[in-house]
Amino acid sequence: MKRSLVLTFSMIIYITACFSQNTIKGKVIDSINKEPIEFAVISIGEKGKNTITDKQGNFQIALPKDSAVIYISIIGYQSQSVDITKTAKSLLIALERGAVDLKAVIITSQSNNASFHTISSIDLNLRPVNSAQDLMRLVPGLFLGEHHGGGIAEHIFFRGFDADHGTDVNVSVDGMPLNLVSHVHGQGFSDLHFLIPELGAHYEFGKGPYYADHGDFTTAGYVAFRTYDALDKSTVKLEGGQFNTGRVMAMINLLSDKVRQKGQSAYLAGEAVYTDGPFDFPQHFNRLNLFGKYNVNLSSKKRLTVTLSTFSSGWRSSGEIPERAVDTGMVGRFGYIDSLQGGYTSRTNVIAKLSSSISDNLSLENQIYYSRYFFNHHYDDTFFAEDTVNGDQLRQRESRDVFGYNGKLTHRTYLSNDIHLVSAFGAGWQLNKIYNSELSHTINKNTVLDYRQLGNVDEMVLNTYLDENLRIGKWSLNGGVRLDYLYFNYMDKLNPQQPSKNKVIASPKLNIEYTSDSRVQLYLKTGKGFHSNDVNVVIASDGKKILPAAYGADFGVNWKPFPHLFINAALWYLYLEQEFVYNADDGTIGPGDKTRRQGIDLSARYQFTSWLFANVDVNISKARDIEAPKGNDYLPLGVPLSSTGGLDFKFANGFNGAISYRYMKDRPANEDNSLVAKGYFVTDLTAYYTKRKYEIGLEIQNLFNAKWREEQFEVTSRLRNESQPVHDINFTSGTPFFAKLKLAIFF
After folding, report:
1. Cα dist. 498→219, 331, 431, 531 in Å?
2. Which of 223, 267, 592, 662 is the most exposed place for a label (fewest CB within 10 A)?
């Protein structure tokens, strides 16, 4: 009893002492566009206590005496020091853009979602981004592949997962989820092609299922992109290259600087893309994007953001070709078997977000969104394996409306520089109304021979979560729990019935972080996540095991052994209750066995000089089916070893660019590893000369013209001259040497 009283009395004295200190509040903004800067580090002295700015750029910190100097630093901006006096209670600090300097990186306690913020900031400031796919590839260990033409969402490989087009990776833009449930081409289909790459202001990623604010499909991890709220300058860009490739992009400020100073901003952006690609059968790929964003301060504490975008794309496809057809000389690497492949897709999005500051420590976000989506795709992977007369051409088609809401209430409790508590309560819902979801056997593209699947789908998810992040000195504890309720309804037009199923899943999270000093930070992440099943699997399994859970753990370190070297490394483990199995022969997805993945991630960023930087990522994983006999327990296309890296240069005179590589090791294409998907090593080069009014650039993909395969699958197919179906590898060749010139005008 006596010991408890002493402890309580000591805490009261400690807290009283904390409040007797001079607490300074402030906001950090960009000096050009006046937008808030998140994750800026505020330090007392050069090595004293520190804190970071929140999403609105706000911070508060207690000074140990009447006056002190605080230091503000973040990658991509000039560090700044401010002399604080006791009378200065609130500050507005505008940071100037500056050269990237890894010496400015300070390892500090951050929110659970910001564990990889340092890497993402370094990479986005240094590495050239030429497409939305390049934005995805910034995530260490994440690889993409394209196999049915440029209009299909890229295939994702991440942490030992063949994640199809998003089944195990949660993807969002400006808070709007992209993963489409029960999509005809793959569960969680995430088409990022509507994102104009020049608008990518920030990206955040997490590995594993450890984040309370991310739900369905967050098993391998998540990627969240954010577009610019305001443009620094207007830009018009022209690009042209081999294979009849061309691109026009423009992003234009609509309001004057004077109006923008008052808290309003608006811009329009658009791009038009065309290419025939390197294939013998020209793709005639075309894409049109339009994007607009408007921000206005409704009051000193309320800000409204409205985003409108529309996207459409059409293409022809050579598809995947059997390995034996190339080996025998029937077709070349860029040839085709069926010329009637390709498709058309479109998506229109509306997002409205209201951010409210209820008090200094209480904020509320409300966001609604709507998408109108259409998809029509013809493909042929098996040729004459099933129908020896008409062929095996398939059509996938659907249209859908997506309605959604995200809400988040955040409260910050500040007791001292050593004790912070950030509490977040979130809630949301999403409704997918899918019309005429179709998988059919066709001839000549539009003549239906028979329907494999045809029906209307209603899927709804309701979610809520609680996330607590407590910082006590060098320790940071994050605990959260998430509840998701999913409702599935399928109106089958082939077998008239309308069954419905529902399920609830709880996902707890517990993460611990220890920041020894500004150079070393250890973390342990644990949690449960899930990926939902396609509605056809849900109905066929009578609602049983329809929300397979994932259980994971990461033990990692953020380390800065030298002023210009930053290292992130982790050991990780993930158990999945049910793997998804994609059947390439008929385009369907089915439930699989329980699986286990484990691996090592290593990322390093190093600055040689003021203008030369190096980066390397190495990712090792072992993926196995734990219910299959040994030797038949391989998970097809799970990547055992991959690496990316390169050198980036940025001269003060405007010359900048990079040389980079992507490496993927051979991987099993089937369960017994009797078929092997070949690995590759590809090198890219970019070079730019940037001045205040213009930029000239050169992009070269596959600099050394390596012969590589971008996509590979185990398929049982039959060519017209074959008497029996053959088990083989079908593949799509990767891009050969490809050069493109660019010219941008700034105004």
Report:
1. 30, 46, 17, 23
2. 592
Cβ distance 397 to 184 under 8 Å? yes
Q: Are 692 and 746 in contact (CB under 8 A)?
A: yes
pLDDT of amino acid 545? 81
- Rounded CA-CA distance 95/77 in Å is 6
Tell the residue number behind the tokens 């809401």, with chain if given. 405
Q: Are 403 and 449 in contact (CB under 8 A)?
A: no
In whole numbers, what is the pLDDT of the chain averaged over residues? 92
Protein fold of 114-448+506-746: Maltoporin; Chain A (2.40.170)
2.60.40.1120, 3.40.50.1110, 3.40.50.2300, 3.30.499.10: which CATH number matches 18-98? 2.60.40.1120
* Beta-carbon-side half-sphere exposure of residue 56 (alpha carbons within 13 Å): 24
pLDDT in tens, 394-428: 999 999 999 999 999 999 998 887 899 999 999 99
* Domains of the chain, residue spans: 18-98, 114-448+506-746
Burial of 329 (C-beta count, 10 Å sphere; 0-12/13-18/19+): exposed
Three-class SS state of 444: coil
DSSP states of 584-653 as a string?
TTTTEEEE---EEEEEEEEEEEEESSSSEEEEEEEEEEEEEETTSPTTS-B-TT--SEEEEEEEEEE-TT
Q: What is the pLDDT of residues 40-59, one digit of tens each?
A: 998 887 667 888 898 889 88
- Helix and strand tally (H, E) in the chain? 6, 43
Alpha carbon distance 237, 248 (integer Å) = 6
The reply to whether 114-448+506-746 shares the fold of 18-98 is no
Task: Report the distance separating Cα 12 and Cα 6, nearest Å.
Answer: 10
Q: Please name the residue that has the structure tokens 């483990």.
A: 573
Assess whether pLDDT exceeds 60 at residue 4.
Answer: no
Strand partners, 571: 555, 600
Per-residue HEC secondary structure of 18-68 comes to HHHCEEEEEEEEECCCCCECCCCEEEECCCCCEEECCCCCEEEEEECCCCE
Lowest mean pLDDT among 130-139, 246-255, 460-469: 130-139
pTM score of the predicted model: 0.93
Q: Which of 176, 177, 134, 175 is nearest to 154 (CA)?
A: 134
**Residue 245 CA, distance from chain mean position:** 26
| Contact yes or no for 240/246 (Cβ under 8 A) | yes
Task: Work out the widest C-alpha separation in the chain, in whole angstroms.
Answer: 91
Secondary structure class of 251 (helix, strand, coil): strand
